[in-house]
Amino acid sequence: MKPITDRFAFKIAGASGQGINTVGEILAYSLKAAGYSIFAYREYPSLIKGGHATYQIDFANYQISSSKSLVDAVIVLNKQKTDWHLQELRPGGIIFHDIDNPRINIEEEKLILEKQIKLIYIPALNLAEAVGGNELMTNIVSLGNLWKLLKLDYKCIEAVVSKTFASKPAILDIDLKCLKQGYDYVLGALPEFGKRLIKSDEISPEAKLALHTKSETDLHSWLQLTTPSNFASQYLITGNEALAIGAINGGVRAHYAYPMTPSSSILDYLAGVAVETGMIVKQAEDEITAAAMALGSMHAGTRALTATSGGGFDLMTEHISLAGIIETPFVCVLAQRPGPATGLPTWTTQGDLWLAIHGGHGEFARCVIAVRDPEDAFQAIQEAFNIAEKYQMVVIVLTDKLIAETYYTVASFEQNKVAITRGQLITDQIELGQLVSADRYALTETGVSKRWLPGAVAAGYNANSDEHDSEGNVTEAADITEQMIVKRLRKQDTLLASLPEPELHWNNVDLKAALQTYNLIGWGSTYGVAQDVLKYYESFNIKVNYLHVKYIWPLRTRDISDFLETHQDAVLLESNHNGQLAELIRQQTGKDIRHKFLKWDGRPFFLEEVINYLEALN
Amino acid sequence: MSCCGTHLETGEVKYSDYSSEVQPTWCGGCGNFGIWAALKRALVELKLAPHDVLLCFDVGCNGNMNDKIGGYRLHSLHGRVLPLAAAAKLANPKLKVIAMAGDGATYSEGINHFVNSVRNNFPITFFVHDNGNYGLTTGQASATTPQGAPRTANPAGPTASTLNPLDLAFALQPSFVARGFSGNIKEMVEIMKEAITWQEKGFGFVDLLQACPTYNKETTHMWYQARVRNIKDINPAHDTADLNAARMAGQDLQTEISTGILYKNEQTLSYSARLTHRTESTVWQNSRLIDEVKKYDVSKYLQKFV
């Protein structure tokens, strides 16, 4: 592949609990304040302290929505067991560290020399202590020094640090001084090597010294930043935060959940703002309870949300089935992480598509919507409630760890895009007075019957988990059973008729002049990397089409079928082993997708990976 | 049951407003008949119209009442009635929410919900139809099956110890604890009325000792009848505010079994009252979640992400 020269990436690496998120967020918001679009992706183990974590910040002067495999610099915060991330550093990249006696073994030295990587040592602790700081503030010192090398406006990072520590005035002043110490520091000091026993595979102090850069003039060719653009006023937000705020926007008044990564930050966020929103936010005793409570509040007539990941969703499925038969609207966010069982708790996947479609016993109507990014999450959650209420059915909103926890740059959130619609919910007293119990589950052409709320001055009805007749009385009659199953499933057909076809995206390359064409198909978070593939190839006059499937179930098949018919070479991108969307498409259309780029290691698709895969097809 | 009863026209609540055309399917002599009658009478005597009430049923013989009574009903899943009922109440506090479940659902399948509902002090009323075994699945042992009593899946009697449900509740800092007997409708009506009235203060838990003539040959209607005695008759000085006294009074399940209201805690706040972000807010304190479904401006939340 041709090199990517117009976007950049830094990786902050260290132990969990070392403040990586704080440093990462400061750098991400500062780069945005300087005018760049950001994509900030975290990798961390399921631990609170220790273990190895990274925070990768990609940035460009145009909208980006994926991570690169190769980064321009690594900021190493680890003091104990150092991982230099040499594999991910591009040739000519640099490593910032403040370790007085770093371990570098022979293999690492070889790679550093081969890739012409430069090490930069900053005596961060000394610099921090000189202004009253401590070990925790060394990260800020290093950040200050990086910022100077970027030659960006100091005010940008100063303002972000001030905002970050605004609630802790006692340390804010020292943090600002530490930032300045790092910014003003002139490279030159070198670590005092050789104080400890050298391991057999470790290189000599002299060799370590040789790998270090002593002067900033050596770094002139390191990075040629592109001119900043106008992203400063845009939002930098994770999918979970956007989804939670979308829920507030769309009239969700209760949230019941049990903590499970990567859905927990929805619970934490909503609990944090409950004083302002007035929402009831309840940490339930388990996911069974969370689902039951969401359904109970929905049954009474408010909008209540629950959110979980795969394991919790398993527990919720009996209530999904209950919602199916009593036809009470129900909305659940399923934030995917790799399974089976506890799997990889803090990593990403698209492995629960089949679970979302099939979870829950019996045959009943449901809708599965896959979110593509934070902006989409903000709207899709509102759309989910509208569908749930309009069709009185279960709606599952699929996200994944990548969307849930990664910071995306979003231009705007249109607050009135999705108006609240509640379908056939009867609230008018005259209409209520005319209802009879048998209206509740009356057989209709659309499958949707009138719904009214307990407490309404009207005829009562029975929301019955047993098979029932139109007023909810228990029945075991063959004919009524048959009719009721059909009635409820008919709602899915009614919904399907109202859903749009998958969205086709393409880059700005004239098909006639194009050197080549790639045709991609994907769903959920894959949207992000696909958008960046489109942009990448635009500059090389290569046409890329991308068909994005948002409404997974029920599935509209016309455009998918046409796309696969027209493009026999279509490439599917999916973060799972079985190609779950591909299998669903084959089931629904009879068409196979020839090329499947599947990935099930818990990592998202990195930009270069997709490009390399496409180019290897030729 | 296609109509909604005369209360809609007259404003008066009659016993027949809670009637259903669906005939009971319980065995002859089943304790559910008594509970069914007492429940309807308690609701009528409290002048609660069917539309004011949400009756929530679990799965089991008790749950089969779901279409033998009028009004708004929610027939849930086995063991799961409490969280559904509690959340319905949270969404619409004007509803009187009554949950019912059997001993199998409450003390086995859904014991976590029972424990946490007491701890959360959800403002709902809970009647347990405690017949000492699983009736609907043809007589397996439950947590309240007496030791040594053979049941279909436990021919030599339960292998686990027998639970005293009141003792469990007393360990959880309860709000309201009572015990009734399916053979004493008059007493059940009084207990139910008080438990339902208590609802705004918190979780009203009533264990109803119930005969199961088909499967429970040990603690039968006659067996209970010879042993149950109202707490006021046992000890006229019983103080319902005294947790230890109530706990002691609830211990005996063999010789003299206390019934009636054993314990009431006026101090414990209900779950809703603990939500100070609503109770202390002029915007939300008198509002219901069901009336709050509308678009909200979220600019101030988004602004923090710029």
Give a short overview.
Chain A is α/β, with parallel strands linked by helices and 618 residues long.
Task: Please provide a written account of the structure.
The complex is a heterodimer of chains A (618) and B (306). Chain A is α/β, with parallel strands linked by helices and 618 residues long. Chain A has four domains: 7-219, 3-Layer(aba) Sandwich (Pyruvate-ferredoxin Oxidoreductase, domain 3), CATH 3.40.920; 236-410, 3-Layer(aba) Sandwich (Rossmann fold); 429-498, no CATH class; 503-617, Rossmann fold (3-Layer(aba) Sandwich), CATH 3.40.50.920. Chain A has an eight-stranded mixed beta sheet. In chain A, strands 9-8-10-11-13-12-19 form a seven-stranded mixed beta sheet, with helices on both faces. In chain A, strands 16-18-17-20-21 form a five-stranded mixed beta sheet, with helices on both faces. In chain A, helix 3 (124-130) crosses helix 4 (138-150), helix 4 crosses helix 6 (169-184) and helix 11 (287-300) runs parallel beside helix 12 (310-326). Chain B is α/β, with parallel strands linked by helices. Chain B is built from 13 helices and ten strands. Chain B has an eight-stranded mixed beta sheet with strand order 2-1-3-4-8-7-10-9, sandwiched between helices. In chain B, strand 7, helix 7 and strand 8 form a beta-alpha-beta unit. Chain B is globular. The mean pLDDT of chain B is 95.
**CATH top level assignment of chain B:** Alpha Beta
Q: Could you tell me the mean pLDDT of chain B?
A: 95
**What is the count of helical runs of chain A?**
21
Strand proportion of chain A: 15-25%
Task: Quote the beta fraction of chain B.
Answer: 15-25%
Number of helices of chain B: 13
* Secondary structure: helix percent of chain B: 25-40%
* Sheet with most strands: strand arrangement of chain A: 6-5-4-1-3-2-14-7
Largest sheet of chain B: 8 strands, mixed
Number of domains of chain A: 4
Looking at the overall shape, the CATH architecture of chain B is: 3-Layer(aba) Sandwich
* C-alpha-based Rg of chain A, rounded: 27 Å
Radius of gyration of chain B: 20 Å
Judging by the overall fold, what is the CATH architecture of the largest domain in chain A? 3-Layer(aba) Sandwich
CATH superfamily of the largest domain in chain A: Pyruvate-ferredoxin oxidoreductase, PFOR, domain III
